[in-house]
Amino acid sequence: MKNHTALTKWVEECTELCEPNNIVYCNGSGEERKRLEREAIATGELIQLNQKKLPGCVYHRTAANDVARTEHLTFICTSRREDAGPTNNWMNPEEAYQKARDIFKGSMKGRTMYVVPFSMGPIGSPFSKFGVELTDSIYVVLNMRIMTRIGRPVIEALGNGEFTKCLHGQAERDINRRLILQFPEDNTIWSVGSGYGGNVLLGKKCLSLRIASYLGRNEGWLAEHMLIMGIQDPQGNMTYLAGAFPSACGKTNLAMMAPPPVLKTKGFKVVTIGDDIAWMRTKEDGRLWAINPETGFFGVAPGTNSKTNPNAMATIQSNTIYTNVLLKPDMTVWWEGGEGLPPAEGLDWEGNFWKPGITDEDGVLIPGANPNSRYTTPAAQCPCIAEKWEDPEGVPISAIIVGGRRASLMPLVYESYNWQHGVFLGATLASERTAAQYGRLGEARRDPMAMLPFCGYNMADYFNQWLDIGKKLTHPPRIFHVNWFRTDEDGKFLWPGFGENLRVLDWIIRRCQGAAGARQTPIGYIPTIDSLDMEGLDLPDGVMDRLLSISARDWREDLKETKDFFDRFGDRLPQEIWDEYRALDRRLDKD
Ligand code: O2Y
Ligand code: MN
After folding, report:
1. What are the catalytic residues?
2. 68 ligand 1 Cβ < 6 A
3. Per DSSP, which regions of 184-221 are E strands?
4. Whose CA is nearest to atom 13 of ligand 1?
5. I need a surface site. Which of 139, 386, 531, 564 has the fewest CB within 10 A?
6. C-alpha span between 240 and 271 (Å, rounded)
7. In 65-80, which positions are buried (b, 16+ CB within 10 angstroms) versus exposed (e)?
8. CA distance readout (Å), 546 to 51, 425, 488, 527, 541
9. pLDDT tens digit sequence for 318-347
């Protein structure tokens, strides 16, 4: 590592700024993991869990003000504001470096700075990118070794080559002195003042989405907030799908879904390639190929149990880092919506005594686990991990699915007319906020391709990038929109979701094979009722009709919001997107 002159110089500069007492170059070995865990357990940064019941698992709590990504403190720092676009927070690079420098200055005094070389994507794959994260947090190092490929093999492959410079410091972990800064023009990330999740595991959202989307634009590929899964049909054909869903829409559950018994008996099998990020390239065969650049899952714990996600439950039984969940007296863990009944007592995510029904001074129930508590777990341990999940060539994508939480408007599933119309579906994607997110509950937030918080450049140019990629594809994936969250008058979900979603994916796959029926509507192709395999699922009469219905009046209302959103991009919005907008308007008028 010390032979890489640019790397050495940068480590020296960061050392001068942060003033750590020690520098440790990580080699990624098992020995190193054990040593770091021991050190962190000794200082209380980590708590060792019950090694009989949860071998290799540890527990961590973050500061109470540091439990989720902080979008309002996240900036794209480009020389020109318009290159970040109207949907990103922007800061001038010089100002951003100066502000962060003031917080980083001397912040690692008395601490160790770890140097973590990592690869996003299999080492040696044409898709992959290198990064080096400097951090003063053992928790971050241990998470990075699960979520990415780290250490000696990376350094050997990196040689003297390009890498993303990622500097992370916890500093005071004060929300008023926290900044998550992406400098796409410098291939650099600076994150200071946080110790949690997407803010600090810099290979994830910061590199694999914000920086990578910018690199992808310049190099002609796509970095997307998408799961990748494979579905084997009863004839034995494997079809790969990529899916963009905003945070809190169940991407991990979908990526690892267990087929319902009837479909399993028929021979359906689901395999997982990734649950959060897809890097996609066109190849000479005219198809779109994708890899998951990560090696682990950083999943939300609450709501995860052996009914909602048996594969995730099996994965997290060993070698997992649990963050901000409830700690049980037997040194195992629990969370709301988790396995079995709540324990009689425990320590909550803030370390306070907890028992079921305990309330605060205003009578509000106190949860045992933070709603955004997480597990970090190796993908290789997942029982349904795909054989090809680390294939350096990736997998060919036949269908792209986009979807959000919509109580009304959006049918269960519909298919776009073609690639350009599909890009319009992605560009107009919206999702209603849940209690776990900032903003007004139930309000639909526009979240194009689920990339709103993650696009490293102007989203108008991003739509153009999608259109350009389409021009290179002779066999483009078909693009679909799904909505698992449509409700009745009482707010109850009409569709059972989870494993039953496979019925919709089966229809999507058969559409790709030209073998499923559909009716043409103003918004796209909607399944005919008899084209979905509903065997073994007895929904009340009329429910399927409601799930597949559309209201031209509601769609016209929605078009007004789409226009307001698109107007924000001014002249930069591609003409093709306006063409699709007008074509939909016309089709709705004719209806
Ligand atoms: O709150 C955080 O820091 C994590 S956010 C996250 C983690 C894993 C996968 N996706 C997300 C997301 O917000 O999309
Ligand atoms: Mn995500």
Report:
1. 249
2. yes
3. 188-192
4. 247
5. 564
6. 9
7. ebbbbbeebbbbbbee
8. 50, 21, 9, 12, 10
9. 999 999 999 999 999 999 999 999 999 999
